[in-house]
Amino acid sequence: MLIHKPKEISWEVAAGIPETWITAIQAMYFVASFAPGKSILWHAGASSVSIAGIQLSKAHGASAIYTTVGSSSKVEFCKDLGATWAWNYKEENWSERLLEVTGGKGVDMIVDFIGQSYFHQNLDSIALDGKIVIMGLLSGSKVPDGLDLQVFVKKRIAVEGSRLRSRGTDYQMKLRDKLVQMALPKFVDGTFQIPVEKVFNWKDIQEARALMESNMTKGKIICMVE
Predict the structure, then answer these.
(1) Residues near 32 by Cβ (< 8 Å), separated by ≥ 6?
(2) Last residue of a domain, which of 135, 161, 187?
(3) Are 56 and 25 in contact (CB under 8 A)?
(4) What does the pLDDT look like over 55-111, one tens digit per residue?
(5) Which end of the chain is less congested by CB atoms within 10 angstroms, N or C?
(6) What is the DSSP letter of 28?
(7) CATH code: domain of residue 141
């Protein structure tokens, strides 16, 4: 399953595209059924998938784009990408702020990589007939105590988990084609950014891992094999 690399894109940048952008497209379109006019919240806003998701949401007519991040520099970074609102979860209660700015309505779609620690706040923040897509479990996989199923019925919420790598070839090829159609021309003309935090030689993989674990990055870490 291949994608032709346009000459305008370097190999280092190209390495940061496929799985990242395909994952964002899968969450938005194949799972959450995104449509223009919908609002969307991307957790971990400075992660590579959410960087893609913010830009895709802006380009395809989201009514509002929200995100959560872990530092003030990441707040500004996400706003520059196109986020309407970005909140530093270390300094403010993002779910309360989201309800404030939406007049209590909430957000139509949430793409979550965090899991357990955000579950209750996601339920508070999702709008009527909303969709929560769980793509990761960084804080754990166990449902928190005190979960009230009534909220699912009252709001008509749908919660769906998804993983890309376990999908069949036909499914992944459809995602590949969607990426080529929706995003590849915008990589070439510069509309879509693919931020690369740092490029390492593959022999320095331990340094690359340490940078990743620092949670200070804004974009991809690329390791080159020479």
Answers:
(1) 40, 109, 111, 131, 133, 160
(2) 161
(3) yes
(4) 999 999 999 999 999 999 999 999 999 999 999 999 999 999 999 999 999 999 999
(5) C
(6) I
(7) 3.40.50.720
SS3 annotation, 40-95: EEECCCCCHHHHHHHHHHHHCCCCEEEEEECCHHHHHHHHHHCCCEEEECCCCCHH
Residues 76 and 96 sit within 8 Å (Cβ to Cβ): no
Q: Tally the domains of the chain.
A: 2
The residue assigned the tokens 């009252």 is: 154
Q: Per residue in 45-59, pLDDT tens? A: 999 999 999 999 999
Residue 111 pairs in a beta bridge with 42, 133
pLDDT band at 29 (very low <50, low <70, confident <90, very high): very high
Query: How does DSSP classify residue 219?
Result: S
